[in-house]
Design goal:
244 residues, mainly beta, Porin, 11 strands, DUF2490 domain-containing protein, DUF2490
Protein backbone atom coordinates (compact mmCIF):
# COMPACT_ATOMS: atom_id res chain seq x y z
CA UNK A 1 0.00 0.00 0.00
CA UNK A 2 2.83 2.41 0.85
CA UNK A 3 4.49 1.84 -2.51
CA UNK A 4 1.24 2.51 -4.37
CA UNK A 5 0.68 5.75 -2.47
CA UNK A 6 4.27 6.79 -3.20
CA UNK A 7 3.83 6.09 -6.88
CA UNK A 8 0.59 8.06 -6.99
CA UNK A 9 2.22 10.99 -5.23
CA UNK A 10 5.36 10.89 -7.39
CA UNK A 11 3.68 10.48 -10.76
CA UNK A 12 -0.05 11.18 -10.83
CA UNK A 13 -0.08 14.36 -8.73
CA UNK A 14 2.65 16.19 -10.73
CA UNK A 15 0.94 15.02 -13.92
CA UNK A 16 -2.37 16.54 -12.85
CA UNK A 17 -0.71 19.73 -11.67
CA UNK A 18 1.12 20.19 -14.99
CA UNK A 19 -1.99 19.40 -17.02
CA UNK A 20 -4.11 21.82 -14.99
CA UNK A 21 -1.50 24.59 -15.29
CA UNK A 22 -1.27 24.14 -19.06
CA UNK A 23 -5.03 24.23 -19.50
CA UNK A 24 -5.26 27.35 -17.33
CA UNK A 25 -2.56 29.21 -19.25
CA UNK A 26 -3.93 28.20 -22.65
CA UNK A 27 -7.45 29.34 -21.76
CA UNK A 28 -6.52 32.82 -20.54
CA UNK A 29 -8.53 35.44 -22.42
CA UNK A 30 -6.47 37.37 -24.96
CA UNK A 31 -7.64 40.54 -26.68
CA UNK A 32 -6.19 39.75 -30.08
CA UNK A 33 -7.13 39.14 -33.69
CA UNK A 34 -7.59 35.38 -34.15
CA UNK A 35 -7.79 33.57 -37.48
CA UNK A 36 -8.64 29.92 -38.07
CA UNK A 37 -6.66 27.71 -40.43
CA UNK A 38 -7.42 24.13 -41.48
CA UNK A 39 -4.39 21.91 -41.99
CA UNK A 40 -3.22 18.32 -42.20
CA UNK A 41 0.07 16.88 -40.94
CA UNK A 42 1.36 13.57 -42.33
CA UNK A 43 4.09 11.86 -40.28
CA UNK A 44 6.47 8.96 -40.57
CA UNK A 45 8.33 8.25 -37.32
CA UNK A 46 10.85 5.48 -36.77
CA UNK A 47 12.54 4.19 -33.61
CA UNK A 48 15.40 1.74 -34.14
CA UNK A 49 17.11 0.06 -31.19
CA UNK A 50 20.77 -0.38 -32.11
CA UNK A 51 22.12 -1.16 -28.61
CA UNK A 52 20.32 -2.34 -25.43
CA UNK A 53 20.02 1.26 -24.15
CA UNK A 54 20.39 3.34 -27.33
CA UNK A 55 17.73 4.08 -29.96
CA UNK A 56 18.01 6.02 -33.21
CA UNK A 57 15.03 8.33 -33.84
CA UNK A 58 13.89 9.41 -37.32
CA UNK A 59 10.94 11.47 -38.48
CA UNK A 60 9.59 13.17 -41.57
CA UNK A 61 6.57 15.48 -41.41
CA UNK A 62 4.68 16.68 -44.51
CA UNK A 63 2.55 19.59 -43.27
CA UNK A 64 -0.14 21.08 -45.50
CA UNK A 65 -2.37 24.14 -45.25
CA UNK A 66 -5.99 24.31 -46.45
CA UNK A 67 -6.11 20.54 -45.80
CA UNK A 68 -3.65 19.43 -48.54
CA UNK A 69 -3.74 22.29 -51.05
CA UNK A 70 -0.73 24.38 -49.98
CA UNK A 71 2.60 23.80 -48.31
CA UNK A 72 2.87 24.74 -44.64
CA UNK A 73 6.07 23.06 -43.46
CA UNK A 74 8.48 20.23 -44.24
CA UNK A 75 10.46 18.74 -41.36
CA UNK A 76 13.14 16.03 -41.28
CA UNK A 77 14.58 14.83 -37.95
CA UNK A 78 17.40 12.53 -36.92
CA UNK A 79 18.36 11.90 -33.31
CA UNK A 80 19.14 9.36 -30.63
CA UNK A 81 18.10 8.62 -27.08
CA UNK A 82 19.73 6.85 -24.15
CA UNK A 83 17.62 4.85 -21.68
CA UNK A 84 18.80 5.17 -18.08
CA UNK A 85 16.09 2.70 -17.05
CA UNK A 86 12.48 1.85 -17.94
CA UNK A 87 11.28 5.32 -16.97
CA UNK A 88 13.96 7.89 -17.83
CA UNK A 89 15.59 8.83 -21.14
CA UNK A 90 17.72 11.62 -22.50
CA UNK A 91 17.70 12.50 -26.19
CA UNK A 92 19.41 14.85 -28.63
CA UNK A 93 19.16 15.45 -32.34
CA UNK A 94 18.96 17.68 -35.39
CA UNK A 95 15.99 18.94 -37.41
CA UNK A 96 15.93 20.43 -40.91
CA UNK A 97 12.79 22.52 -41.53
CA UNK A 98 11.49 24.37 -44.58
CA UNK A 99 8.85 26.99 -43.71
CA UNK A 100 6.40 28.26 -46.34
CA UNK A 101 4.16 31.34 -46.48
CA UNK A 102 0.54 30.33 -45.87
CA UNK A 103 -2.75 31.58 -44.43
CA UNK A 104 -3.79 35.07 -43.39
CA UNK A 105 -0.59 35.85 -41.44
CA UNK A 106 2.09 34.48 -43.81
CA UNK A 107 5.83 34.82 -43.36
CA UNK A 108 7.48 37.09 -45.92
CA UNK A 109 9.07 34.27 -47.95
CA UNK A 110 9.99 30.60 -47.95
CA UNK A 111 12.88 29.95 -45.57
CA UNK A 112 15.01 27.15 -44.15
CA UNK A 113 15.64 26.59 -40.45
CA UNK A 114 18.08 24.28 -38.67
CA UNK A 115 17.42 23.11 -35.11
CA UNK A 116 19.41 21.29 -32.45
CA UNK A 117 17.57 19.92 -29.44
CA UNK A 118 18.18 18.19 -26.11
CA UNK A 119 15.36 16.41 -24.28
CA UNK A 120 14.60 14.70 -20.97
CA UNK A 121 11.74 12.17 -21.04
CA UNK A 122 9.88 10.33 -18.30
CA UNK A 123 7.39 7.48 -18.86
CA UNK A 124 5.43 5.58 -16.26
CA UNK A 125 2.71 2.92 -16.35
CA UNK A 126 -0.11 3.23 -13.84
CA UNK A 127 -2.58 0.41 -14.36
CA UNK A 128 -3.52 0.47 -18.05
CA UNK A 129 -2.46 4.12 -18.42
CA UNK A 130 0.96 5.14 -19.74
CA UNK A 131 1.81 8.63 -18.50
CA UNK A 132 4.60 10.65 -20.07
CA UNK A 133 6.24 14.01 -19.53
CA UNK A 134 9.10 15.64 -21.40
CA UNK A 135 11.15 18.82 -21.41
CA UNK A 136 12.93 19.81 -24.62
CA UNK A 137 15.37 22.68 -25.21
CA UNK A 138 15.49 23.85 -28.84
CA UNK A 139 18.10 26.04 -30.51
CA UNK A 140 16.90 27.51 -33.82
CA UNK A 141 19.31 28.69 -36.54
CA UNK A 142 17.79 30.87 -39.27
CA UNK A 143 20.36 32.67 -41.44
CA UNK A 144 22.42 34.63 -38.90
CA UNK A 145 19.76 34.59 -36.17
CA UNK A 146 19.78 32.10 -33.29
CA UNK A 147 16.83 31.80 -30.93
CA UNK A 148 15.98 29.42 -28.11
CA UNK A 149 12.80 27.97 -26.69
CA UNK A 150 11.49 25.17 -24.46
CA UNK A 151 8.77 22.57 -25.10
CA UNK A 152 6.87 21.12 -22.14
CA UNK A 153 4.66 18.12 -22.88
CA UNK A 154 2.40 15.93 -20.76
CA UNK A 155 0.50 13.00 -22.22
CA UNK A 156 -1.39 9.79 -21.57
CA UNK A 157 -2.00 6.64 -23.63
CA UNK A 158 -4.26 3.68 -22.88
CA UNK A 159 -5.73 0.69 -24.77
CA UNK A 160 -9.45 0.50 -25.53
CA UNK A 161 -9.57 -2.79 -27.45
CA UNK A 162 -7.49 -5.89 -26.86
CA UNK A 163 -7.62 -9.37 -28.34
CA UNK A 164 -5.68 -12.32 -27.00
CA UNK A 165 -3.78 -9.95 -24.71
CA UNK A 166 -2.69 -7.87 -27.72
CA UNK A 167 -3.66 -4.19 -27.99
CA UNK A 168 -5.44 -3.43 -31.26
CA UNK A 169 -6.70 0.13 -30.67
CA UNK A 170 -5.66 2.71 -28.11
CA UNK A 171 -6.26 6.37 -27.35
CA UNK A 172 -3.65 9.12 -26.97
CA UNK A 173 -3.91 12.62 -25.53
CA UNK A 174 -1.27 15.24 -24.92
CA UNK A 175 -0.85 18.91 -24.14
CA UNK A 176 2.27 20.77 -25.25
CA UNK A 177 3.42 24.30 -24.48
CA UNK A 178 6.22 26.01 -26.40
CA UNK A 179 7.86 28.81 -24.42
CA UNK A 180 10.21 31.52 -25.66
CA UNK A 181 13.30 32.04 -23.53
CA UNK A 182 15.03 34.89 -25.38
CA UNK A 183 15.25 38.28 -23.67
CA UNK A 184 13.84 40.13 -26.68
CA UNK A 185 10.64 38.06 -26.30
CA UNK A 186 10.28 38.61 -22.55
CA UNK A 187 6.69 39.85 -22.93
CA UNK A 188 5.65 36.90 -25.09
CA UNK A 189 6.72 33.77 -23.23
CA UNK A 190 3.95 31.54 -24.61
CA UNK A 191 4.74 30.95 -28.29
CA UNK A 192 2.43 28.01 -29.03
CA UNK A 193 -0.04 25.68 -27.34
CA UNK A 194 -0.98 22.26 -28.71
CA UNK A 195 -3.83 20.02 -27.54
CA UNK A 196 -4.11 16.59 -29.22
CA UNK A 197 -6.50 13.66 -29.05
CA UNK A 198 -6.53 10.62 -31.30
CA UNK A 199 -6.60 6.88 -31.86
CA UNK A 200 -3.67 4.47 -32.20
CA UNK A 201 -4.33 1.48 -34.46
CA UNK A 202 -1.77 -1.28 -33.91
CA UNK A 203 -1.24 -2.90 -37.30
CA UNK A 204 1.32 -5.33 -35.90
CA UNK A 205 4.05 -5.37 -33.25
CA UNK A 206 6.21 -2.93 -35.21
CA UNK A 207 3.70 -0.66 -37.00
CA UNK A 208 1.16 1.76 -35.51
CA UNK A 209 -1.19 4.02 -37.44
CA UNK A 210 -2.28 7.21 -35.68
CA UNK A 211 -5.36 9.28 -36.53
CA UNK A 212 -6.20 12.37 -34.51
CA UNK A 213 -7.04 16.04 -34.15
CA UNK A 214 -4.67 18.78 -33.01
CA UNK A 215 -5.76 22.22 -31.86
CA UNK A 216 -2.65 24.30 -32.48
CA UNK A 217 -2.59 27.91 -31.31
CA UNK A 218 0.32 30.08 -32.44
CA UNK A 219 0.82 33.39 -30.61
CA UNK A 220 2.43 35.39 -33.42
CA UNK A 221 2.36 38.69 -31.55
CA UNK A 222 0.44 40.15 -28.64
CA UNK A 223 -2.32 41.11 -31.06
CA UNK A 224 -2.34 38.18 -33.49
CA UNK A 225 -3.18 34.53 -32.87
CA UNK A 226 -3.36 31.73 -35.41
CA UNK A 227 -5.73 28.92 -34.38
CA UNK A 228 -4.96 25.82 -36.45
CA UNK A 229 -7.43 22.93 -36.70
CA UNK A 230 -5.17 20.10 -37.83
CA UNK A 231 -5.81 16.53 -38.92
CA UNK A 232 -2.94 14.25 -37.86
CA UNK A 233 -2.13 11.10 -39.83
CA UNK A 234 0.97 9.26 -38.61
CA UNK A 235 2.76 5.97 -39.16
CA UNK A 236 5.08 4.81 -36.39
CA UNK A 237 7.65 2.05 -36.98
CA UNK A 238 9.67 0.31 -34.26
CA UNK A 239 12.47 -2.14 -34.96
CA UNK A 240 14.77 -3.83 -32.45
CA UNK A 241 18.06 -4.44 -34.27
CA UNK A 242 19.67 -6.04 -31.21
CA UNK A 243 17.59 -9.18 -31.63
CA UNK A 244 19.08 -11.85 -33.84
Amino acid sequence: MISKISLLHAIAIPFLRTFTLVLFLSSLPVCAQTVNEFNSWWYYTGTYKILPRINVQTMYSWNRNDFVRNWQQSKLKIGADYEFNRHWKIAAGYEWIILYPYGEFPISKKRTEHRIYEELKHDFVLGKFKLSTSVRAEHRFLNTDVTHRIRLQTGVKFPVWKQQNQSLIGLSFYEQMILNTDKQLVNQYLAQNRLYGGADIFLDKSLTLGLGYLNHRIYLTKNRIENNHTLIISLYHYLDLTKK
